[in-house]
Amino acid sequence: MRSIWNGAISFGLVSIPIKLVNATENHSISFRQIHLADGGRIRYRKVCEIDEQEVSAGEIGKAYEEADGSMIPITDEDLGALPLPTAKTIEIVAFVPAASIDPLQMDAAYYLSANGVPAAKPYTLLREALKRSQKVAVAKYALRGRERLGMLRVVDDVIAMHGLLWPDEIRSPEGVAPETEVTVRDAELDLADALMDTLGEVDMDSLHDDYREAVEELIAAKADGRTLEPTAADDSGGKVIDLIAALESSVRAAKEARGEEPESEEEPADAPVAEVTSLSGRKRSGGTGAKKKATAATKKKAAATKKSASGRAPAKKTAARSTKKSAGRTGAGTAAKKTTAKADHTKAAAKKAAPRKRASA
Predict the structure, then answer these.
(1) pLDDT digits over 239-268, tens only?
(2) Which of 86, 202, 342, 352 lies 20 to 30 angstroms, CA to CA, from 359?
(3) DSSP type of residue 271
(4) How many angstroms separate the CA atoms of 81 and 169, rounded?
(5) What is the per-residue DSSP string for 95-151?
(6) pLDDT tens digit string along 26-55?
(7) pTM for the whole thing?
């Protein structure tokens, strides 16, 4: 890999010659501007505003623009002569826990390569010291005309450096958080935790840029004169949803994606079955299938009842015979009592009727 900067790491009184190499690369697909009428390339030409002549890169320098528009030329020599200890040195100023670095400060990443055989021993010493301490080094360095802040850490067997933004370059998040007071219930937090547990961890190497792949496929299709079929977009944004239902659905979908069986919402096999009695004059929405099942269940129950009743029939008949005999023995006495009571009732009625007849005579 080609180095973009040569210098040294200043580790107290130890100096480690190093080369700075880009640790990342941009895979984004870039487009050119064209003239829609004829497809001609549109280019930006660098033209001097005074003589309106196009100038080459070798004729272009740097300058600082004053408030009144006047330019103050600044050369590379001027910048190189600045009394900065970090002009060609990565100066370590402290060792801190990695957790103390705000990820918002993270910028570009570089690999630091030992420059020459003499640099191997101090380079390895710093690398092993960082490993054993489980800390990162905070350093200052100058690159592309400005002093920057960096963080040194170990990646495999290499010292890597992350460019950091200065603390005053991090904007305050004031006014970004929701202004409306929102209450989150424990049930919602429990479902969110369940979703996090279900999604689990991911192999970072398995992640890739789907958009870039789609653009590459589009370019290849157009180059071959083919037309790609548009895919339906997932229009799930901007809708008011039931948060609990959405979390539950997300948990089920995540489990299915991981090949896990989602929890069944059906009743267990030994659950009690409710009997359904149809009401006359009232329509039911169960359908023909439900009616057939209810009828079959009723018939089955009736058959069981009949079978049970047939098994108890002899006992019932014996009880009936006994009752009949008992009634036969007591029937005569009961009839005599009824006759006597009837005669008494007739005599009483005659006595009451006699005075009425005399009064009428």
Answers:
(1) 546 777 877 787 788 777 777 765 654 444
(2) 342
(3) S
(4) 26
(5) EEEGGGS-GGGEEEEEEEEE-SGGGHHHHHHHHHHHHHHTEEEEEEEEETTEEEEEE
(6) 888 889 999 999 999 999 999 999 999 999
(7) 0.57
